[in-house]
Amino acid sequence: MKIWDIVIVGGGPIGIACGLEAKKKGLSYIILEKGCIVNSLYNYPLNMQFFSSSEKLEIDEIPFISIEAKPKRNEALEYYRRIVTSNHLNISLFEKVSSINKIDGLFNIVSEKSTYTSTNVIISTGFYDIPNRMNVPGEDLKKVTHYYKDPHFYSNQKVAVIGASNSAIDAALECYRKGADVSLIIRGPEVGQRVKYWVRPDIINRIEEGSIKVYYNSTVKEIKEDEIILNSPSGTTSLKNDYVLALTGYMPNFEFLEKIGIQLTDDEKRLPQYDPQTMETNIDNLYLAGVICGGMETHKWFIENSRIHAHMIMDHIVKKTKSVNSYQEK
């Protein structure tokens, strides 16, 4: 039976960074990714542009060259794919992990394809797979989606975009520019303050000139085949509607974390327990890396400020391994 030094769950940028660091440290590792390479980035909108500049998205000091200062989705896909292939990283794609259990000091990792035994595990699964649902009647209609890809599909359609953050604002602007009749429904009193600084003036101008209709302080009451019903300051409002883009954010797979045994705070933030100096959780030799560390505060961690996790984790694993070996030699 092969015992891996590390099994890394998640093949996004931070999981890849962990693989690179493990390889440099001479540790045996495998990255298990349930989709394609950087699966979350692949599922981003086709024309998405990052908030971060290219150098802040770099991992392992490998240069990221982009046409503009802030790269787009297709450039990021090419960058991370080339890192994986050029460095011959040991990654298994389209292999979803179903369970992780610790038995007699070793982790038993079960996937859809195989079973692995490892001394250490790193969870780097991000948060993009589970949308924050509105929990309203009609949310499961075919006209409703929590993911947005390409504006062409919505041309000449009445589209309601739900949300006030970057994904919703980008979708509203792109659909409007492809000829959609866009209504923007925002729960709060304004467009989100964290919207990209070069995009926020654009959406505000489109709203002020009447090109995009906005409903502030409003929530969705019900979605029907040909309309959407809102709770708004003026009362119940009905809008003719063909499609709904419910871009209300996403969350980590808390059920998966709890099943493993990782402790979460019992407040709305659902923060997982880990040592910020080593990234080790309440379970010895089980680590978190990347945006999953933020629980529901998905805006706190990005590639640029979590890529350091790979170094922190590997340094801690090597230190612990040396300590154990030194003790055994005595």
TrEMBL record:
Gene3D superfamilies registered for this protein in UniProt: FAD/NAD(P)-binding domain
Keywords: Flavoprotein, Oxidoreductase
Any one GO molecular function term: oxidoreductase activity
InterPro entries documented for this protein: Bdr (IPR023856), FAD/NAD-bd_sf (IPR036188), Ferredoxin-NADP_redctase_2 (IPR050097)
SUPFAM superfamilies, sorted: FAD/NAD(P)-binding domain (SSF51905)
Superkingdom assignment: Bacteria
UniProt-recorded name of the protein: Thioredoxin reductase (NADPH)
UniProt source species: Arenibacter echinorum
